[in-house]
Amino acid sequence: MRKKFCVIGLGYFGFHLALRLSELGAEVLAIDIRQERIDEISDRVTHAVCMNSTDERTLRSLGLQEMDAVIVAIGEGFESSVLTTAILQEIGVKTIFNRVTSPIHERLLKLMNVTGLLLPEVEAAEQFATRLMLPGVLQSFLISEEYGIFEIPTPEKFYNKTLSQLDLRKKYNLNLITLKTFKRSGGLLTLGEHEEYEVLGVPTGETIFSEGTIMVLFGKESDVRNLLMD
Q1: Parallel, antiparallel, or unpaired: how do β-strands 116-118 and 96-99 relate?
Q2: Are residues 217 and 138 in contact, defined by beta-carbon separation less than 8 angstroms?
């Protein structure tokens, strides 16, 4: 059964979230108060509705209780976000995620017992800080204070060698999750366009590293730094 999601608020974050969920095969209902945003996305998601999300009567008529999750991605101010969330709770929506826009907004949502808090700007800042500190890292996702997942271009010194020969776990204390190869690029500000990669599956000892591949590694940031500086 296809998952069903509603995204309320089609700013940059909400717009791209709705598109990506749709690309991944989900049924997506997109809501925004601006008709131009609805026009841009209407043929790329399941349904798109131009409305004020604080209109309780209209919101009740959309069957949001049947959604796997409703994501409140309203970005300007937080009054509409808080009121929309209160209505969603009142009509019985099971799972609600909120984009947090300020510390006060976060505090209010916590007082409303909303646990699905999204801080895309904070996550982007953390990833950018890692890229600045580790120039060879393309992407990073911290799982804890110590461990994370890091994507780096395969170093030239690894070309034509197997995973067994490199022995990453013993030499660098890192685990290779998979390898990726680049397929298609998307522009920085294109609507819904993004880079695409082919994932090469679960690596084995016989996996051969080659030019143009990207290593997806699990381990400590300090160990990734050691690999890049070796």
Answers
A1: parallel
A2: no
Q: If you average pLDDT over every residue of the chain, what do you get?
A: 89
Q: Are 209 and 179 in contact (CB under 8 A)?
A: yes
Tokens of 204: 């084995």
User: Which residue(s) pair with 4 in the sheet?
Assistant: 27
| Closest by Cα among 191, 183, 198 to 18 | 191
Q: What is the pTM of this model?
A: 0.70
For the chain, list the domains and their CATH numbers.
4-118 (3.40.50.720), 123-229 (3.30.70.1450)
State pLDDT tens for residues 176-198: 999 998 765 555 444 444 567 78
**Is residue 208 classed exposed, middle or buried when 0-12, 13-18 and 19+ CB atoms within 10 A define those classes?**
middle
Residue 31 amino acid letter? I
